[in-house]
Amino acid sequence: MARSKSSKRWLNEHVSDPYVKQAQVDGYRSRASYKLIEILDKDQLLPRQGAVLDLGSAPGGWSQVVAARLQAKGKIIASDILPMDSIADVHFIQGDFTEQAVYDEIITALDGNQVDLVMSDMAPNLSGIDATDQAASMYLVELALDMARNTLKPGGGFLAKVFQGEGYEAYVKDLRSSFDKVLIRKPKASRPRSREVYLVGKGFRP
């Protein structure tokens, strides 16, 4: 099947992307690892020890970074509808966390504890229809925020990828209702033409 012009452009960008090449050198599963590294360094979201929930974790680039930094001094629960190869010190749960059985499995894995950080790099399968894709992406980050409100300890942190567009401003306002500080980050590894930004919530208020 012939590739579209947009898919050819993406493939060419991906192959020549310096972060893709660096990820191969550093052993990271995803170029997204560098987005997380920059944000963690800037905003000090990660506790020295504690619990982290990684939503939309596959292929595991973010969990890799967190596991390396916590060095078995905390608990990392990762979840995705897609499979993910195992990572030392990461408890992976495959499935849709909005389904009761998967949600219950995550809560059981937390063993009655709340988490210090909820992070989400989730994105929908794109249809190519902007309005549909934007609605789907906003739905996912709303689900991530709901999960954060159910699992975060007071003062905890939140990090989520969000695409600017319809619903974005309302989401930022909603985020501010639950966190002392909300920051907007555009990491260097995020492609300039992408509408993605990362929202950081600090100081969770139950």
Automatic annotation (TrEMBL):
Pfam families associated with the record: FtsJ (PF01728)
SUPFAM superfamilies linked to this entry: S-adenosyl-L-methionine-dependent methyltransferases
UniProt cross-references to InterPro entries, sorted A to Z: RNA_methyltr_RlmE, RNA_MeTrfase_FtsJ_dom, rRNA-MeTfrase_E, SAM-dependent_MTases_sf
Superkingdom assignment: Bacteria
Enzyme class: transferase
Main location, first listed in the record: cytoplasm
HAMAP family in alphabetical order: RNA_methyltr_E
Function: Specifically methylates the uridine in position 2552 of 23S rRNA at the 2'-O position of the ribose in the fully assembled 50S ribosomal subunit.
Identification of the protein by name: Ribosomal RNA large subunit methyltransferase E
